[in-house]
Amino acid sequence: MFDTGCVVSVKVKGEDKKTLSGVLIDTKSGLVLTHGTLVSSLLTDQQINSLQNKGILQNSFHHWDAEVCLQRTNKQDPNKNLRSILNSSDICTQTKNETWQKNLYSEYSANVQAIFSLKKLQNVVSFLLPENKWEFVEDFSSQETPDDQSKFYVMLSCFIILKLNNWKSYNNNLSVLAYDQLDKGDNLEIEATPFGGLCPEIFLNSRSTGVLSNKAGGILLMTDARCVPGSEGGPVYLVGLIITSLCWKSNEWVGLSMACAITDVLKRVKQICRVEVTTIENIFRARNNLSQLIESIPLIVIGSNWGSGVVIGRDDGHSILLTCSHVVKESDYNTVKLKFTDQQKIHKGKVIYKTPVDEQFDIAVLTCPLNSGKYIQISPKPVAQGDKVYVIGHAVFGEEKNLEPTITSGIISKVSSINNIPVLIQTTCAVHAGASGGAIVDQYGQLVGIPVSNAKDTESKASYPHINMCIPIATVSPIIQEYVASKDASILENLTIKHKHIKRLWMLDSIHTASKL
């Protein structure tokens, strides 16, 4: 028996071997799936056009040599430990003969049955990830031409079906979860092989975990789980298949990987192969509470700029919100529009107070004539290093994309304090443009911080989404709560702090500077 994940390779005479991750979808018939970008450089312009027009390519791969590397299911002997293995007299002989490799995995030749595209996925990709604004990694070791990049983009919405030769059938159910059963914030696990077939002894079927950060169009999934080139085609257990591991928007790295919902892919496989994949079973699971918090995170739009806000309470028929001062810096001469996920109406916000630009606590307080819906409770205690947290905000995608907030996961990596008072917190969550002013919540869904900026190298211009600076809510909440109780807006002036040591921390006295989101 074998693990579900695998490595697929295709070799054409005169070309380097191409490798990507894949998934064994049917152990009875020996069917394997991988992603279409595996062969993007091997297809002719005519084949690309045919694929775009007809949605499928068949009977065009007789000159391709395909192989699939499957990892044997690991059944460890609990009576063996590392010391007994290392002291074994057989280890040198086994290493010399490389028989240990055969115990790890098996290789099968395979035939490419078809390459097919999913129109639904193609439409979502072209809308959310337009080719002129997004870049994707194909081969991390080579220089791509514009033609290569164009082919690669077309193949983002394509998949490859392979059938293993000399396969010995066995039963092994594959449990899948439908798109509509998924909530943002759900834990996800990827099984893939970094760098494809570079070194399967080390990388084959490596695991990484994260959360479902967002989803779109009934088919596209986004996750913050670690993913590197070569992972495309690998399973996201088991809700999807990775379609791109690394991507950039407007030359800024986006720390999210994209996947396609598995149920859409399997439906097309059944149509093409005219077989019933009997080893697939649908499962269900309970909803998580994290996804309910997105109703408290409105999109804030001022002119052509956007950011995020967080509703922290209701008072006298109004909602009270926090955001970053730089998000509403143009509010003096522009309308502040608030768009909530659960409402069609656009609400007008009023800025009660905003700290001066470039002050230590980049924060603003708003009200909105809305006395319904949910709000996020403020945590009664400060965060500590190592605490599990989530960032919720309208990152990457603007108003025109009409997406719900994105969720990323991580921990509190650092708490900077002065006189035992937290003045700056950092997280390992991926934080991108548009997330400023959103929420950092703990595992109980309580507000612990406000994301302000990520780190950016002023020389290379590279941004680091997983290094970000955030306002500790425990430090500013007493001032905000006093304002709510008294209705005296002058109290909020205490949010403007002039302290040289705090300013030094926020300005980062190094080659890096804060990058406003």
TrEMBL record:
Major location category of this protein: other
Localisation per UniProt entry: Peroxisome
EC code: 3.4.21.-
CC terms in the record's Gene Ontology section: peroxisome
PTM per Swiss-Prot/TrEMBL: The full-lengh TYSND1 is the active the proteolytic processing of PTS1- and PTS2-proteins and in self-cleavage, and intermolecular self-cleavage of TYSND1 down-regulates its protease activity.
InterPro entries: Peptidase_S1_PA, Peptidase_S1_PA_chymotrypsin, TYSND1/DEG15
Keyword Protease: yes
Alphabetized UniProt keyword annotations: Hydrolase, Peroxisome, Protease, Serine protease
GO process annotations (BP): protein processing; regulation of fatty acid beta-oxidation
A single GO molecular function term of this UniProt record: serine-type endopeptidase activity
SUPFAM superfamilies per the UniProt record, alphabetical: Trypsin-like serine proteases
Keyword Protein biosynthesis assigned: no
Source species, domain of life: Eukaryota
One Pfam family, short name: Trypsin_2
Protein purpose: Peroxisomal protease that mediates both the removal of the leader peptide from proteins containing a PTS2 target sequence and processes several PTS1-containing proteins. Catalyzes the processing of PTS1-proteins involved in the peroxisomal beta-oxidation of fatty acids.
Family affiliation: Belongs to the peptidase S1B family.
PANTHER family for this protein: PEROXISOMAL LEADER PEPTIDE-PROCESSING PROTEASE, SERINE PROTEASE-RELATED
Name of protein: Peroxisomal leader peptide-processing protease
